[in-house]
Amino acid sequence: MTKPAAAIGSLLCALALPAAAVAAPKVVNVATGLGGICAIAEDGGVYCWGESRAFDVDGGIAKKPHRMGKLAARAVSIGRNHACALDRAGAVFCAGQDDVTAPARGSSQDMPDDSPDPGAAVWRKIPGLPKAKSLISGGFHACVLTTTDDVVCWGYGGENRTGHTGNDPKKVAGLGPTRAIAASEQGTCALGTDKKIRCFGQLYLADGMEPQKKVITLPLPPATSLAMDDGWACGLSEDGKKAHCIGSAKDWTGQQSDKPYSLDLPEKGKSLLHGSSDLCVLGDSGKAHCIGLTASLLGRTGVVEPRVFRAYPGTADTWSLSGFNVCRVTKEGGLECAGSSEDMPEPREWEQRVAVPVLGLQNAVEIVAGEEHACARHQDGTVSCWGGSWEDSALPRKRPNLSDVVTLSAGGDTTCATKKSGDVVCWQPAQVQNQPRLVSPPKSKLESVAIGAGHGCGITSGEVRCWGEAYNGALGFISKDEYPKPSDAPVKVPGVEAPASLDAGVQATCALGKSGDVTCWGWNDEGQLGIGKREKATTASRVTGLSNATKIAVGNRFACAVDKDRRVSCWGKGALTPVPWPGPNDVIDFEVGGGNRLTRWPACIVRAKGTVECGAPGSARQVRGVAKAKSVAVGDEFACALLEGGTAACWGKHREGQLGDGRAPVTTVPAVVRLP
């Protein structure tokens, strides 16, 4: 049957009309946590995104907000691997994979840490809880404030984190009637109706205090609001003009003290907020004023100035701060967030394609790079480092109590300095201490040290000895165990003759012999041992077709060497034997990247005219903005060049401050978050 022309025309017009825009749900509350961000919509829907296993999207990382189930909530909290929501009837539901969800799931022993639970994103009601009016989450525990003003906690109870033993919900004794609660990674504090603050858990507030054993009352004046973290606790004064605190005194006042102290607030406060290491106050104006490491980035310094609060952009009645994320709910029901690019719904590109100067660095004679940090040795034997951790700075900062250094080595999160005495000193940024494992050298004197991503090697008395993680033959032998134990004692690597120097990467190491031969051992899945095959080498093996080498560099599945004629050859990343680097034989330095995510720049070389090329043989490109380079260091998707005159320039990814130009590793400019 033929349709009338008018009807067809009407149909075509209808198809051509754009669909009416669907209004985004209005936001009424927001929570930032250790593993991501959750927002509550006007209808009670919970929308989450970030890295928490509770979200169970794309292996536990939700790049965009998505609604978690059909729960109608009025509050939400986020821990390491869990999220909890308080519904409108006062019941608590949790999702995720840790001890907090165990009461609703059975024993936590059934949930291995290294395998995501396919049911993690399912809300489960926590049994045995009285009706609640607010809730909080720590790292691996949670608490509610009940309608009868009691505090009930559950989850991992080690070091008194829940105020009792066992995983199941239980009232915390010794608190009395409570008006507000706050939690950190390892502890909890409660503000009583008597305006006193009481705390429990693995907290480090002052010498002599033992909240890990019992509930303690803090020696602070009466408070109307509280905020806390593992290393401090504060109460808002009754007139709203001061924060009375204990702990973190050196960071915030410039003087170390175990005694209580007071901070003058920039305006009269309604309540205190806390976000990781920061203390914040919500002022009468609706602004959030903060002091701490994250807030210091508003000043583009990464350095906390004593008694200086900084205000985040915008005003709101509802703010949430945690880790490096800051969110606010606007009066119109919109949501704006700033912070870590990994937790933003639309991750920003954190890359500097043209080299920028490392600000304030002078008289440098050596530069090294780890996965996300860099260090420089000065002429006077001191060392400055930048990037890699929020405990460090986006600008070069001198390492304390370190002098007489003659050489540096870096790998993963670890840096080691060899002193004139032959002693080797190693360190990691405080935030990642022992995770991954700190690669500490043996006490014996070492002539040369190389630090990889999880292991280290050194030369002593003509032998190579390695220590640390033993995966894939990193220590010079293949273990029969699937998960070999790390070795604190140095292990001799057989098959290495007359070693002159070493370099280590990701579970692989190479030794340069005094004869110019190169011998390698460890991981070989991409041919990074240069032995012509991908098979595991049970012992150290000589690199095929390479001789007269004068320097070596080993990274992530890639290695290079330069010979006495200044020719560079590289192997790995699928090349099973050395491949020459095209161009003139004028290389004066080179380095290989050792980061786990490195894909763009397996290596960088410095030519005699002072230019730098990065990439792989046949595909390398010259770096813009670098001139008069003397040497180069390559990390994980970033690199730095040491320049004539003792200065340096860096390029690449900069979200951890590793370029040393003072740029904030997170954005402090709020971005609008639209719920689907």
CATH evolutionary superfamily of the domain at 375-593: Regulator of chromosome condensation 1/beta-lactamase-inhibitor protein II
What is the SS-derived class?
A: mainly beta
- How far the N terminus sits from the C terminus, by CA atoms, comes to 42 Å
Give the helix tally.
4
- CA radius of gyration is 28 Å
Output mean pLDDT.
83
Largest sheet: 4 strands, antiparallel
Number of β-strand runs: 55
Q: Judging by the overall fold, what is the CATH architecture of the domain at 375-593?
A: 7 Propeller
Architecture overview:
The protein has a domain at 375-593: Regulator of chromosome condensation 1/beta-lactamase-inhibitor protein II (Methylamine Dehydrogenase, Chain H, 7 Propeller). 4% of the residues lie in helices and 42% in strands. It is built from 4 helices and 55 strands. The chain has a 4-stranded antiparallel beta sheet with strand order 1-2-3-4, with no helix packed on it. β22 and β23 form a beta hairpin. The longest helix is centred in the N-terminal third of the chain and has 12 residues, at 5-16. The radius of gyration is 28 Å and the shape is elongated.
Architecture blueprint of SSEs:
Elements: H1 5-16, E1 27-33, E2 36-41, E3 46-50, E4 62-67, E5 73-78, E6 82-87, E7 92-96, H2 102-105, E8 124-125, E9 132-137, E10 141-146, E11 151-155, E12 170-171, E13 178-183, E14 187-192, E15 197-201, E16 216-217, E17 226-229, E18 232-236, E19 242-247, H3 249-253, E20 261-264, E21 269-275, E22 278-283, E23 288-291, H4 293-296, E24 310-311, E25 318-322, E26 325-329, E27 335-339, E28 351-357, E29 364-369, E30 373-378, E31 383-387, E32 397-398, E33 405-411, E34 414-419, E35 424-427, E36 448-451, E37 455-460, E38 463-468, E39 487-492, E40 499-504, E41 508-513, E42 518-522, E43 541-542, E44 549-554, E45 558-563, E46 568-572, E47 575-580, E48 587-592, E49 603-607, E50 612-615, E51 621-622, E52 629-634, E53 638-643, E54 648-653, E55 667-673
Antiparallel strand pairs: 1-2, 2-3, 3-4, 5-6, 6-7, 7-8, 9-10, 10-11, 11-12, 13-14, 14-15, 15-16, 17-18, 18-19, 19-20, 21-22, 22-23, 23-24, 25-26, 26-27, 27-55, 28-54, 29-30, 30-31, 31-32, 33-34, 34-35, 36-37, 37-38, 38-39, 40-41, 41-42, 42-43, 44-45, 45-46, 46-47, 48-49, 49-50, 50-51, 52-53, ...
